[in-house]
Specification:
This protein is α+β, with helices and mostly antiparallel strands and 356 residues long. It is 31% helix and 28% strand. It has nine helices and 22 strands. The strands form seven sheets. Strands 9, 10, 11, 12, 13 and 16 form a six-stranded antiparallel sheet that branches. Strand 19 and strand 20 form a beta hairpin. Helix 7 crosses helix 8. The longest helix is centred in the middle third of the chain and has 26 residues. The protein is globular and about 95 Å long. The N and C termini lie far apart (64 Å).
Length: 356
């Protein structure tokens, strides 16, 4: 073997070794990629395994809802969970992928917080985002607050009530007694003797229903029905329930899309005009739209879902324009009202709305 051949063999061996090593060496970065989209006008899977079922992303009780012919997607960014780092090869691919972003690990995963703390914080942000979206949407619609009500949050699949109650049902009375707090609800149920039928009056999809729910004996020996109640604000006696688990989709950026989904369901004719619309942006209870992260990845996710309209916080229009395909209309929004009027303009065929 000549010296040239030997050099070539050594170089090839080193190259192969480097490629192999790149697939195992972990690097201190986070790769942000386009995540899944969720239609706020559609359904979402709840539970897992044998307990998996679908439920509306947005359930409304106490008012007649509209059926939309379009889609209104909330968009997400996905990455490896904190505590898990990508390989050097994955980072290199991310750097050369127009739809990905490679960020220092500490930017997305603060060193003073463990992965479970980061997940818990994102879940809290999503829960707050859902609450703000409900308040902002009803305020935009001109509804007034009518106090809090007890709502069915989830139902244990193994109890008889699972065949009768649904997530989002508003509990008006139990055993002939009015219910306004979870404490009152539990007290009424536990005062009965199981097993037995328990009459309930609920609101579901704008209709008042009288149900007979069978009670069971819980692990503590006390009477139970088998559902988790939660307190929800009502506006004009209407309740909106968000079916997304904050531990599945975290963070605050879905707020504007969720608020628009509520408004669409309560607006005759809806907002989409049959179009596929997507977007992002936090929303405050007063309707102010705030900035988010990962705008390029969210636009890529929207494009993959065939969205032709994307609404984004006005402050992030620069990054949005650099990522959006030419066929996508970008709507700049500062408030929820901006988003509503812009979608109404697009539906009517007008171009008179704030563009990015």
């Amino acid at each position: 073997m000549t010296r040239r051949d030997t050099t070539l063999v050594i170089a090839l061996a080193l190259l192969v070794g480097m490629i192999v090593a790149a697939n195992y060496i972990k690097v201190p970065y986070v790769i942000l990629q386009p995540g899944p989209v969720t239609d706020t006008l559609g359904t979402v899977q709840t539970g897992s395994g044998g307990n998996a079922e679908t439920a509306p992303v947005i359930s409304i009780s106490g008012a007649k809802t509209q059926t939309s012919s379009g889609h209104l997607y909330l968009t997400t960014v996905q990455s490896l969970p904190c505590g898990t780092r990508p390989t050097l090869w994955e980072a290199i691919k991310g750097w050369f992928d127009d739809h990905d972003a490679v960020e220092p690990y500490e930017v997305e995963c603060p060193p003073n917080e463990n992965p479970s703390q980061v997940q818990a914080q994102e879940a809290r942000q999503m829960s707050e985002s859902q609450s703000h979206a409900v308040i902002a949407a009803f305020t935009e619609l001109g509804y007034t607050s009518t106090g809090n009500r007890v709502v069915v949050g989830s139902v244990t699949s193994s109890v008889p009530a699972a065949k009768v109650l649904r997530r989002g049902d508003v509990i008006e009375s139990v055993d002939g007694k009015p219910v306004r707090t979870a404490t009152r609800l539990v007290a009424i149920i536990q005062a009965t003797t199981p097993p037995g039928p328990l009459p309930m009056v609920i609101l579901r999809d704008g209709k008042r229903l009288t149900l007979s729910v069978r009670t069971v004996t819980g692990d503590t020996g006390k009477t139970m029905v088998g559902f988790a109640p939660r307190i929800a604000p009502t506006f004009n006696h209407v309740v909106a329930t968000i079916g997304i688990n904050p531990r599945v989709i975290g963070g605050p950026s879905a707020g504007t899309a969720l608020a628009l989904g509520i408004i669409d369901k309560l607006t005759p004719g809806g907002l989409t005009g049959g179009r596929t619309i997507a977007g992002t942006g936090t929303v405050s209870s007063t309707g102010k739209v705030g900035e988010i992260g990962g705008i390029q990845q969210k636009i890529a996710a929207a494009a993959a879902a065939h969205a032709t309209v994307f609404f984004a916080p006005a402050a992030e229009c620069g990054d949005a324009k650099s990522a959006a395909p030419a066929t996508m209309t970008l709507v700049a929004v500062k408030t929820l009202h901006d988003a509503v009027t812009s979608l109404q303009a697009i539906k009517s065929g007008s171009t008179d709305f704030p563009h990015c």
